[in-house]
Design brief:
CATH topology of the largest domain: D-Maltodextrin-Binding Protein, domain 2
CATH architecture of the largest domain: 3-Layer(aba) Sandwich
Strand content: 15-25%
Number of helices: 12
Helix content: 40-55%
Shape: globular
Oligomer: single chain
CATH superfamily of the largest domain: Periplasmic binding protein-like II
Distance between the termini: 53 Å
Structural class: alpha/beta
Number of domains: 3
CATH class of the largest domain: Alpha Beta
Amino acid sequence: MNWDDLKYFLSVARSKSLSVSARSLHVSPSTVSRRIDALEQALGTQLFSRRQDGYDLTDAGANLISTAEQAEAHLLWLERGAARSETETAGTVRLAVPELLGQYILIPQLSDLQHAHPEIQLEIITDVRSTPLTKREADIAIRLTRPTHGDYTVQRIGQLSQALYASSDYLNAMGTPRSASDLAEHRFVGWDSELSYLPLAHWLEDRPEIPSLYMRTGSYHSQLMAVRAHMGIAALPRFAAELFELQRVLPEESSLVSDIWLVRQADSRRLKRVSIVSDQISRIIKGASDQLA
């Protein structure tokens, strides 16, 4: 078999679409289809059920996922220069961080790292989703929930406070809630169904006095923009809401406080450049403790 065909297999397995995979891989849909056919012929089994609305994995395809992801992980690891000496600082470090925390706390404070270690290149993924370190998609991750499984080192480096916020214009137009029961008369912005598992999503949606969400989004930043556009109330990190002078709703209520975890992948944690970056991130978060919590 051609090992490169696994790249096409994984892309189609994740997107369930030839056209989406073709765009992400910068090839034509016919190329993706041809490579999938070649892999199936090499393995002597059908990996996908072809449907009009997309591609679904067969049992054989589902069984191949884990092995293919392991192969992908090692290839990405080598591609990013992980085969270099563990004591060498030059190379790329990939960091996954919740978007607002990355945009307004971490990135503005990384210039010291750049000046001290210009040989280190950073790739930063800003997303609230839990990036799977097992696929080497990141060397370091900042998470608001502690991983329950996996070969990681985990360190608690701070806390993040979030509460209900709205714009002054929205509250002037709709009225300021004076009690929890008043929330039933207001519009709310929250998380889409794909991210409903997040504790910060439960904190908002489990409140019986809150009506159905007026708007659902998949990112903190879009929720922040919706609140700044006077579209409703959202549960936002305190530091971001106060940065844009949003108004706290029901300030007498307790905030949701989440621990901030620094997570390092098992293999990459031995690399000197990863240790340098993780130490700097820890210092930044601890230095911003008053803003965050």
